[in-house]
Amino acid sequence: MLTLAPLIHCLYAAESLTESVAAAAFSRVGQRVLHVDRRSYYAGNWASFTFSGLLTWIQQHHVTLLIKEAQDWSSLLEEGEELIHLSHSDCASIRNLQVFCFTSEEDEEEEAPNTTEEETGGTKETGEEEEEVREEEEVREEEQTTPSAALRQSEPTKKKISYAQLLKEGRRFNIDLVSKLMYSRGSLVDLLIKSNVSRYAEFKNVTRILTYRDRQVEQVPCSRADVFASRQLSVVEKRKLMRFLTSCVEETEEQRAYNGRPYLEFLRDRQLGDNLQHFLLHSIAMVTEDTPTEEGLASTRHFLRCLGRYGNTPFLFPVYGLGEIPQCFCRMCAVFGGIYCLRHSVDGVVVDRDSNRCKAVIDSRGQRITCSHFVVEEGYVAADRKRVATPTRFLSRAVLITDGSILPSDSDQQVSMVTVPPIAAGCPAVKMVELCSSTMTCMPGTYLVHLTCQSVGSAYEDLSPVVTRMFRTPESHDQETCPSVLWCLYFNMTDGSGLEAEGHNLPSNVYVCSGPDGDLGHELAIRQAESIFQKILPEEDFCPPAPNPEDIIYDGDNTSSSAGGEEEKEENDGVAEEEKQEEEKEMLEEEKEMLEEEKEMLEEEKEMLEEEKEVLEEQNLQTEE
């Protein structure tokens, strides 16, 4: 029988990102933490699965679970105590699962190039040979005149991946239930750096930002280098875009005059064309046409602040999937003494009637565990005890395994963020993330594609029209050049942004965490974790940096005298001074690089002005003629 510690400072039920971050923060400052979860895997609705693991997860949600009757634990209660029963259902947050497989079940046998010869005994008519020669000559002529002929030539010989292969290579997949990216200057990245948790994971840059427009996928120029290298924008558009982005860095009175008015109206009044309006609205600010100007500008500034820190786009993605992030914080919690129990559920909360505080919890085995604070996922709490700002909303999710990139390029290792505006009136805007095999989320030769939007109907109803337009499926029409969908999953997930932080009908030392929200970043989860920490330990630092292994001094090894300690202190002071000088040197070098970049930018602007001047002169000459 499992015996747990008799007194726990902070007890957690479920292991979503919010709970994992808060648990790591408490454990780091010396609190005793117990983390239990009824699931058999870490991270809850933030988890990543192998392909076979995902199939098991789908099967579990398809099975109709019998509602477990609440057990009578009255014998474990003391005088003046009452029990609040927790929910046992784990399926309320996931619904409308639909799975489709568009590839063959078994491996297709490779067809030999001389099949016709074998069938006819190796003989051919002379007329057939002449016809084949003419066809080969025509193919060669097409290859010489068509730039993408080499790509198309390889397509027929490409063996289609079967469902059996997906199962066989299933461990190469790491499929996230949630689709998000990490802003390079967002709260999650800052916390990973501050706490030293970043050393537990690896990250890749999102290499490009794409948008879907007029039934075509286009690359969005977002950095300065992209803008000047773009062939989609004219010289005048490039200059207008750079001027607008520069003006967005700081808030002005002119911008405040548009507060409460649509962001699209603000863009139109800046004399920006349709191209620039589309890029700025849907791919840089990532807002809708009705979004207020102040929100659109805030999103644009955040996007611009994140550019250039780690690459030409503002985003990072963790290798092996987003499910690694909660596990990294769980690892930090365990390093500092946190205890983890999977497949172990909490049945109820023991409440003192006089103080309205949680004194203990009772687990599914009838064990009473005393705790000072209890942090719980909203799925455990009955609806009549939760306070929500809006009626429950859902996210529509789709996960695709495809055989090619949505926008082929010279490199087959692109990580792409794709924005898809509403394809029709009443349809939601869709955010799409396409991952290549170098992210360790799919097998070589395939791409893993995540689609997310606010639910209007079921996930299939919301997202299948986008899938059939942008990929090749049995329902697609005239999509021969698009990548094929091998396997796909649709499901709806509860949007956690509607949960209120306070005001729940619960004891004062019970804290409720929401599930994933529909935003692209992780701001809500980190904000919730920090808020819970500050309520419990307002005087402590949130997630202070963990020491490096080489900096840890063990008691048995600390035999040096006080004189030796003073020498070590002087040595450390000298090292600190050297590090300070190096930092100042690096800052000067960065300033020098910035000045050089500004100089280059001014030169480029000068060239653009000269080109504009030439264009205007040509227009004047044409007008005079």
How does the SSE layout of this entry go?
Elements: E1 7-13, H1 17-28, E2 33-37, E3 48-49, H2 51-62, E4 81-85, E5 94-101, H3 115-119, H4 126-145, H5 149-154, H6 163-168, E6 175-176, E7 182-183, H7 187-195, E8 203-205, E9 208-213, E10 216-219, H8 224-229, H9 235-247, H10 253-256, H11 263-269, H12 274-284, H13 293-306, E11 315-318, H14 324-335, E12 339-342, E13 346-352, E14 357-363, E15 368-377, E16 394-402, E17 416-420, E18 430-435, E19 447-454, H15 459-470, E20 485-494, E21 510-513, H16 523-536, H17 562-624
Parallel strand pairs: 1-2, 1-15, 2-12, 9-17, 15-21
Antiparallel strand pairs: 3-6, 4-13, 5-20, 7-11, 8-11, 9-10, 13-14, 14-15, 16-19, 16-20, 17-18, 18-19
Helix pairs in contact: 1-14, 1-16, 11-13
Folded structure, characterized:
By secondary structure, the chain is of the alpha+beta class. 36% of the residues lie in helices and 19% in strands. Strands 1, 2, 4, 12, 13, 14, 15 and 21 form an 8-stranded mixed sheet that branches. Strand 9 and strand 10 form a beta hairpin. Helix 1 runs parallel beside helix 14 (324-335) and helix 11 packs across helix 13 (293-306). The protein is globular. Residues 395-517 form the RAE1/2 domain. It comes from Dicentrarchus labrax. Residues 105-156, 551-625 are annotated as: Disordered.
The total beta strand count reads 21
Number of helical segments with 4 or more residues: 17
Radius of gyration: 29 Å
Mean of residue pLDDT? 83
Distance between the termini: 96 Å
Keywords:
GDP_dissociation_inhibitor; 36% helix; Rab proteins geranylgeranyltransferase component A; cytoplasm; single chain; alpha+beta; GTPase activator activity; 625 residues; 21 strands; RAE1_2_domI_C; eight-stranded mixed beta sheet; 17 helices; disordered N terminus
